[in-house]
């Protein structure tokens, strides 16, 4: 168990960070002039991009692989989208001071797909460069 966590701890910590940041009371911060309209969606995209890259990197290190299979990539994407959906459901039913916005889930999914695309491109480039 500790060997598995050794490779996945950055992704696990990042997932806890996402869970906390998406469920705390933000007050009037969203109405601050320092943030532009859509800033929240950009943050969601970046958070899930990072989590996808961290988890995929942990998977590659744990399994001693150079690149992901298509099936593994799809499974990782589905798990990440499920995590984003769970956060939105928590915001709707449990953390009532936050509002569930399905556009946030769309932004999460865009970040997840961008992260997976970057992992696939980078890992395949490394794989073919080492041939």
Automatic annotation (TrEMBL):
For whether the record's keyword set contains Oxidoreductase, the answer is: no
Q: Which residues form a coiled coil?
A: none
Key words, A-Z: Membrane, Transmembrane, Transmembrane helix
Entry keyword Cytoplasm: no
Q: Which residues cross the membrane?
A: 12-29, 41-60, 67-85, 105-126
- PANTHER family linked to this entry: DOMAIN PROTEIN, PUTATIVE (AFU_ORTHOLOGUE AFUA_3G10980)-RELATED
NCBIfam families assigned to the protein according to its UniProt record, in alphabetical order:
vanZ_1
Protein name per Swiss-Prot or TrEMBL:
VanZ family protein
Q: Which organism is it from?
A: Mucilaginibacter roseus
């Amino acid at each position: 168990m500790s060997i598995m966590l050794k490779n996945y701890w950055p992704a696990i910590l990042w997932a806890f960070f996402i869970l906390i940041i998406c469920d705390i009371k933000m007050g009037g911060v969203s109405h601050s002039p320092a943030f532009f309209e859509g800033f929240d969606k950009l943050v969601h995209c970046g958070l899930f991009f990072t989590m996808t890259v961290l988890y995929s990197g942990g998977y590659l290190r744990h399994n001693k692989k150079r690149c992901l299979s298509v099936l593994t990539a799809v499974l990782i994407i589905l798990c990440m989208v499920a995590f984003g959906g769970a956060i939105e459901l928590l915001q709707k039913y449990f953390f009532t001071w936050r509002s569930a916005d399905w556009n946030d889930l769309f932004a999460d999914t865009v970040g997840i797909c961008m992260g997976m695309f970057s992992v696939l491109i980078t890992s395949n480039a490394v794989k073919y460069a080492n041939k």
